[in-house]
């Protein structure tokens, strides 16, 4: 696995970004992980970040997008809030992620048995 650069991020389409997430989720489901050197990713992202996806998920401890989609440091913007609700602050973060930083896809990740949503 590699750390995304400006070039790799800009060459991705939304469909390719979705495919990367699907492949990562399949690894998660199969209890596999991509081989990553996290310290190397820390060093490679120290001068800038080029995430390819923005993911809005619940703060629930079982819904870590980085784990569920088997992604490394610098790969996604992870926005977490109870009940994965959208407000102006969250929307502003998503606008920043897509317009300024260049993420290619926005995913809203839901889950069952959410304590933040009554009756869920």
Automatic annotation (TrEMBL):
Binds 1 zinc ion per subunit. Its cofactor is Zn(2+). It comes from the Bacteria. Zn(2+) binds at residues 58, 60, 111, 114. One of its GO terms (molecular function) is zinc ion binding. InterPro entries: Carbonic_anhydrase, Carbonic_anhydrase_sf. Transmembrane segments: none annotated. Signal peptide: none annotated. Pfam families: Pro_CA. Keywords: Metal-binding, Zinc. PANTHER family: CARBONIC ANHYDRASE, CARBONIC ANHYDRASE 2. Belongs to the beta-class carbonic anhydrase family. This is Carbonic anhydrase. It comes from Mucilaginibacter polytrichastri. The lineage of its organism: Bacteria, Pseudomonadati, Bacteroidota, Sphingobacteriia, Sphingobacteriales.
